[in-house]
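If it is no trouble, can you show me the amino acids of a protein and the tokens describing how it folds?
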Amino acid sequence: MVLACGWAAHPAAGADSSPSVNSSFEELVRQGDAADAQFDPEKALRLYLKASSEHPKDPQVLLKISKEYSDSTVALSDPNDRRLRHEKALRYARRAAELDPRNPMALVMQAVCYGKLAELSDVRRKIEYARLIKDYADRALAIDPDCAYAHDVLGQWEFEVAALGRTKRLLVTLVFGGLPQASTEESVRQLERAVQLEPNSATHRLALGFAYVANGELAKARHSFEVVISMPPREIYDADCRQQAQQAIASL
């Protein structure tokens, strides 16, 4: 999964010195948002954690913390370090969902966390997490049919599961109990909707490009990748999206 997708009780290592103890909750959040916009997840994380210590039941801040834990893994090379960060991200997303059950992004963030953890897990866990990813994304769309990231998550889920092929799916069914049906056509539909809702997201457009490839629509795929390459960076993952798009075009 590609989200910033992308999540404790103490400031993150390597963060800047703490702001003044007189800083208000609102100012801490503002500074955290500014750090996030500058692609500095460690600094943003420290500020949001400080804000959360003042208002521990604010679900929006908990979601911000979840996002920064996930985003901070971009700079980590050790799989165990990444896993620990994604597990923390998941805990904060769960807490946000407990406090605000009707918040679709609290559900989407859990789906994203499971997607990131699946990349670091054995086959049994991958299958378990795949079921959870779809469940949380479906629940998010039931609350908000226009939640772009829920469409993105489902679109990526569709083409990744469809890519297993009949033989592998049969093996998964025999050994692990199977997965819901998936198709590249549904993947395209979900990701086209995500792009329609958020046309300035490189993440959505990159995923749509790969869905087009999986569905045999290579001209549309090339166009999607070219758009990604032309987009200015807006999120911490966008530089990687651009690189993936360049590599994808070279392989078409």
In short: The chain has two domains: 1-11+24-145, 147-252. The chain is about 70% helix and 0% strand.
